[in-house]
Amino acid sequence: MQTSTKTIAMLAIAFLSLGAVGLALGDSDDDDHEKREKGGGWVKSRPDVAPVVNATYSEECGSCHMAYQPGLLPGDAWTQIMSPAGLSNHYGDDASLTDEVRTDITAFLLNNSADQAERSRSRAFAVSANQSVQADGTSLPRITETRYFMHEHDEIPARLVTGNPKVGSFSQCNSCHRGAAEGIYNEKQVSIPGHGRWED
């Protein structure tokens, strides 16, 4: 009788262990950009690029447009954008800053730029930056003109973005990427206003 109880206990432990292994393997099959929260079963996405953590940048730049994560452009591009000349003609607007603020924000952007980041999506932005635009010095670099960005958006009809009054431009990341402010850009978080979910 005692042996039978031990056998049952050992079988129970074995089944529980197999179940745990199965759960672990199941998680490894999930999208690399997602993980399961403990307990509730909800799927929580992790940021594809490091979130913005600089209050000055969030306040100064985020008051006019989304504070784009530094990991969306390489350091050379941010240097151009944050130069006094670049800020005085910031995509058609004067966004000039005091030297102190400009230096603070520039340091944050350069320390966290795509070519300094470890996350794969940032690395993709770094290697796909449009060097010809940066080299001619006549216009500022744009995230939307990187080859990686264009590749990721090439199947989306323009009518859903530039022709959509609720979006207007591909630069309005947070209009469609619900997690953009947190650096989450995976397809499962996309919902185009007036259209709904989008998947390739």
TrEMBL record:
The keyword Nuclease does not apply. Pfam families: DHC (PF09626). Keywords: Signal. The keyword Protein biosynthesis does not apply. Residues 1-26 form the signal peptide. This is Diheme cytochrome c. It comes from Thiocapsa rosea.
